């Protein structure tokens, strides 16, 4: 016998399958609003910093450096700087959001609502990706006035931009949960993210590196992200694009599992 329509449970527009869509969307909006309301600090300041890097390096080495693999030095440099800003700001968004909530004692704002660890993870990562992409777009638009930023392989730009921001967003999430004060976040930034970024070929081609630094560069995830992102604009890559795609996907999967387990356990959040 067919069940009467009136007896069937009405669909809940606030959920999509097992996901609490409304709660997830609300936390994501909070993450975006948090950095957007201070956009001069979170968006415009990184753009200015990147432009200063671009100007100083070009003035110091531009004319003497010459082309790299047939690409003008300025055109080679710009994509790496754009992605560097994207990665650093994706990390800053998720790490600062969680740490500030812990320090101010209002992490209950996202722990008490009916949000699963998966929903929390998605919202924090999406907020980090949004900030990173906004900074990258703003930087790219400004830099395009000085160099050729026409896309050559759009898929590579989108892939490395999104996966790179996701990766650093998850590093920031785990770092924010682990940190108990701002000095701990500074340790990650100053001793892990900045060195790996600067040694990834952002300002040079790794082809000029002697051994063992040339080989070591090929286990640096920042190298694959920056090299792949630059390939999207110039069509030139120092490393294997296929290996880079697989490496970054694998690293994202590992960090996604780690982020989920950290949030599920409540480590340093619920204690």
TrEMBL record:
<feature type="transmembrane region" description="Helical">
    <location>
        <begin position="73"/>
        <end position="91"/>
    </location>
</feature>
<keyword id="KW-0813">Transport</keyword>
<keyword id="KW-0812">Transmembrane</keyword>
<feature type="transmembrane region" description="Helical">
    <location>
        <begin position="239"/>
        <end position="263"/>
    </location>
</feature>
<comment type="similarity">
    <text>Belongs to the ABC-2 integral membrane protein family.</text>
</comment>
<dbReference type="InterPro" id="IPR013525">
    <property type="entry name" value="ABC2_TM"/>
</dbReference>
<keyword id="KW-1003">Cell membrane</keyword>
<dbReference type="Pfam" id="PF01061">
    <property type="entry name" value="ABC2_membrane"/>
</dbReference>
<dbReference type="InterPro" id="IPR052522">
    <property type="entry name" value="ABC-2_transport_permease"/>
</dbReference>
<keyword id="KW-0472">Membrane</keyword>
<feature type="transmembrane region" description="Helical">
    <location>
        <begin position="154"/>
        <end position="179"/>
    </location>
</feature>
<feature type="transmembrane region" description="Helical">
    <location>
        <begin position="38"/>
        <end position="61"/>
    </location>
</feature>
<feature type="transmembrane region" description="Helical">
    <location>
        <begin position="185"/>
        <end position="206"/>
    </location>
</feature>
<protein>
    <recommendedName>
        <fullName>Transport permease protein</fullName>
    </recommendedName>
</protein>
<dbReference type="InterPro" id="IPR000412">
    <property type="entry name" value="ABC_2_transport"/>
</dbReference>
<keyword id="KW-1133">Transmembrane helix</keyword>
<dbReference type="InterPro" id="IPR047817">
    <property type="entry name" value="ABC2_TM_bact-type"/>
</dbReference>
<feature type="transmembrane region" description="Helical">
    <location>
        <begin position="120"/>
        <end position="147"/>
    </location>
</feature>
<feature type="domain" description="ABC transmembrane type-2">
    <location>
        <begin position="37"/>
        <end position="266"/>
    </location>
</feature>
């Amino acid at each position: 016998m067919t069940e009467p329509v009136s007896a069937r449970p009405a669909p809940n527009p606030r959920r999509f399958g097992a996901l609490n869509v409304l709660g997830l969307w609300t936390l994501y909006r909070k993450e975006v609003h948090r950095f957007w309301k201070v956009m001069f600090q979170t968006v415009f300041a990184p753009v200015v910093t990147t432009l200063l890097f671009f100007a100083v390096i070009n003035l110091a080495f531009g004319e003497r450096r010459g082309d790299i693999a047939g690409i003008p030095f300025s055109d080679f440099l710009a994509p790496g700087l754009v992605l560097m800003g994207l990665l650093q700001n994706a990390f800053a968004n998720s790490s600062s959001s969680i740490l500030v909530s812990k320090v101010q004692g209002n992490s209950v704002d996202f722990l008490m609502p009916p949000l699963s660890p998966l929903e929390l993870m998605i919202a924090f990562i999406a907020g980090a990706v949004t900030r990173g992409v906004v900074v990258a777009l703003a930087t790219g638009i400004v830099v395009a006035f000085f160099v050729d930023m026409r896309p050559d392989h759009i898929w590579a730009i989108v892939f490395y931009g999104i996966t790179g921001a996701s990766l650093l967003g998850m590093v920031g999430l785990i770092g924010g949960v682990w940190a108990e004060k701002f000095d701990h976040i500074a340790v990650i930034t100053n001793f892990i993210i900045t060195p790996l970024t600067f040694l990834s070929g952002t300002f040079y081609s790794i082809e000029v590196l002697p051994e063992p630094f040339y080989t070591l560069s090929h286990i640096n995830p920042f190298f694959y992200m920056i090299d792949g992102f630059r390939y999207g604009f110039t069509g030139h890559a120092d490393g294997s694009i296929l290996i880079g795609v697989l490496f970054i996907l694998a690293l994202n999967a590992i960090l996604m599992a780690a982020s989920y387990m950290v949030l599920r356990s409540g480590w340093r959040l619920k204690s």
